[in-house]
Design brief:
Layout: E1 10-14, E2 18-23, E3 26-31, E4 35-39, E5 45-47, E6 58-67, E7 71-80, E8 83-91, E9 106-108, E10 114-118, H1 120-123, H2 129-137
Antiparallel strand pairs: 1-4, 2-3, 2-10, 4-5, 6-7, 7-8, 8-9
Length: 161
Amino acid sequence: MKIPGPDHPIVIKPAAKRWRARFGEHVIADSNDALILTEASYKPVVYFPRQDVSMEFLSRTDRSTHCPYKGDASYFTLIMDGQFADNVVWSYEEPFPAMEEIRGRLAFYPDRVEVYEVDDAEVNPHHAVDSVDDVVLHTDAGDGHSQREHWPANVTRPPEL
């Protein structure tokens, strides 16, 4: 086991934006919780949380590789719509202590699966944290009263007969 250092730096950071992985016409991973691992002079690798990946399209294989810095990687084949990509996904199930953050996460070979960053506002325009917070503050505080003044009515009553 080797420890990352100045001669072989490894940096893991939370992704600033949402990331997706697409195989053919299907998005198979979509996450606001991806990690970006940058190792020495290699290209950065996106690691997706397992719960954000469509695992039903993955099949574990017998392949494994060893990295002296990260540990042993296990591999998965991606099967979808009659197409398959052999050993295209990998995961460090039991990484070395210095790489604990990537435990159980999945990464894709970007030459075989499209891995790309997306703007969450474009993908989910109705998801606005400020408006969600605003709605929550107008709900019952637990004692039967609103936490804020009620919004003004945006409709008028129908005429009484």
